[in-house]
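Quick illustration, no need to memorize.
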Amino acid sequence: MRAFVLVLLPCVLLAGCITAPPNNPSNLCSIFREKGGWYDDARDAQQRWGAPIPVQMSIIYQESQFKGDAAPPRNKLFWVIPWTRISSAYGYSQALDSTWGAYKDDAGHPFADRDDFGDAADFVGWYVDQSHRILGISKADAYSQYLAYYLGQGGYRQGLYRSKPWLRRTASRVASRSNTYDAQLSSCRAELERGGHWWWPF
């Protein structure tokens, strides 16, 4: 029994490290007030990659609803038994294993974790920058950036979204949310900047 508890304890502790989603994901100011450090993480990604904070946050919302351990559903063995996942997507950004590996190599971030919000924000910033470099998509164009994020740069270049009206509708929602987040952020950015640097003596 004692051995079982010793084996189980690290799993419980690890599960406890996953941060719960924000209570009001539709309001960016509320998100950043609730989740200490998230604003600094998103701002750092913006400064490093040039991806606007509202674009980052709208993509993350669409992909995971800010759930750090989000994962796609499992296939069913014999239509009943949960089996393998339908893809390797995981975490806040729903990045695939292969894409996450490319990010870690290219960004020089070998210990990045998909269930860490700061790492996920940096990944999204990196991907937005890649789509800008490869496809010429403006980093502020949340609609086209999401299409490239979902399809990959190759799929976007091939125009695969043209035959997927549901995906274009989703990208429109991402763009609309990004615009809303941008307006909200403009009303609280000064407050967040002051709050993020409370430890300075002046």
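The chain has eight helices and two strands.
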